[in-house]
Amino acid sequence: MRTHAKMNPPPIRIVEEPEGRTAEMPRLLRQEDEAASQDRGMEAMGRLAGGIAHVFNNLLTAISCEVELALTRLPPDEPARKNLREIERAGERGAALARQLLTFSGRQVLQPRLSQLNNLLTGLEERIRHIVGSAIEVKMALDPDLHRVQIDVPQIEQAILNLVTNARDVMPEGGRLTVETRNVEIRPGNSNHPLRSAPGHWVELKVSDTGPGMEEEVRRRVFEPFFTTKQGGEVAGLGLSTTYGIINQSGGHILADGEPGNGSRFLIFLPSAEQPADADAPGGINGKPWETILLVDDEENVRRPLSEIMKSHGYNVLEAADGAQALEVSQQHSGPIHLMVTDILMGSMSGVELAEKLSYDRAEMKVLFATGYPAGLAEGSGLDGEDAHLIKKPFTGKDLAAKVREMLESAD
User: Fold this and answer.
1) Which residues, 6+ apart, have CB-to-CB distance to 320 below 8 Å?
2) Which of 85-90's residues contact partners 24+ apart within 8 Å by CB, and which partners?
3) Which range in 82-96, 137-151, 243-257, 301-315 is most confidently predicted, on average pLDDT?
4) 245, 273, 301: which is the final residue of a domain?
5) Residue 283 resides in a domain
6) Number of CB atoms found within 10 A of residue 303's CB
7) Are residues 269 and 321 in the same domain?
């Protein structure tokens, strides 16, 4: 396992809260207590959404891979390619819906990496301005000494854009959107901070608007799934509730504040991280003829196209429909198995149990777990989410090939 030298963190500026921020504290302190009750309700919803998403993601993976194979076999002028592209786009929309169902409950499978939030926001600035339009002024106030954070970048980007979209919707006649970052140290016993129960070093992201603000009832329910104040039969989205889920699962906190006539403010707190970033340069996609992959999945309509795709990338592929068959295949194969790709939840033997059994005879074999199930719901699997290599369903053959290549070339 790689280790990293510890870096000195950027300084944390301890400043007196301006009058406006001091006025926020009583409302935010009340909301911290309300959030505990909200968490319990979302937990039950998350379990239901997770079970549905597991089946849904398996189906979407099969559809995506079958379409990918069909497109490679048809000539460029084949009229049916247009229909297949439409199926592909429909699958992508279905995958987006599955991700929303998981993220609103904080049960998405995250892939965090060490990141600089200021860089992320700077990269998003043009997109933010495009979303809000010319009638809304955008102000960025980013702390140059901001700590880095351990985040799933696409998920945090989505959380931020959800807040931006919400701000745009409450300012149809124009206004100002302000995005701020700063380091925060919450000291033990600090009863004047909304995160008084979570002392430590945090990175704060604040998104403010000059819209109409929020009534107390709206503020209290703003993160509830399908809750909306829009009129005229507009379809209620999951934007703020998915943002809540993303931040919560990232180990952070999100609080809402606002009062009628005084705009709205959303405060995100993410744990500070001090480690240097890992090198991130995955190798090429194509494998080498002598590299052998054991592919284990109890869904034949998922396993078959994945096997064909990996063979097309030059790998020697062994297939198994469940854990027992995988043990038998491994025993009969005299050469090395460089990597096993296995679904986590399979019949009587999970992918985690299979990996443990094979580790005695094949200690050098790397393992990639494929799952359409949300993190935390595969109870009893024994999977260590921090150390295990995961690929989330639905994925394409190209996604799998890139992840396999990355793992085979890594030193771990």
Assistant:
1) 294, 295, 296, 326, 328, 329
2) 87/63, 88/64
3) 137-151
4) 273
5) no
6) 21
7) no
Instruction: State how far the Cα of 368 lies from the Cα of 341, in Å rounded to an integer.
Output: 5
Backbone angles phi, psi at 370, to 5 degrees: -105, 135
- The domain in which residue 357 lies consists of 292-409
Report the DSSP pairing between strands 113-115 and 136-141.
unpaired
180: confidence class by pLDDT, cuts 50, 70, 90: very high
User: 206: exposed, middle or buried (C-beta count within 10 Å: 0-12, 13-18, 19+)?
Assistant: buried
**Predicted local distance difference test score (pLDDT) of residue 282:** 34
Number of domains in the chain: 2
Other CB atoms within a 10 A radius of the CB of residue 344 amount to 22
Question: Cα angle at 303 between 410 and 104, to 5 degrees?
Answer: 75
Q: How far apart, in whole angstroms, are the C-alpha atoms of residue 392 and residue 372? A: 6
Residue 394: pLDDT over 50: yes
Q: Which of 59-68, 168-177, 397-406 has the highest mean pLDDT?
A: 168-177
- pLDDT given at position 11: 42
Chosen domain end from 219, 239, 273: 273
CA gap 91, 272 in Å, rounded: 37
For 191-205, write each residue's pLDDT tens digit: 666 776 677 889 999
Q: What is the CATH number of the domain that holds 391?
A: 3.40.50.2300
Verdict on whether the full-model pTM lies above 0.90: no
When pLDDT is averaged across residues 203-210 and rounded to a whole number, the result is 95
Chain segment 113-152, per-residue pLDDT in tens = 888 999 999 999 999 999 999 999 999 999 998 998 989 8
Give yes or no for residue 81 having a pLDDT over 50: yes
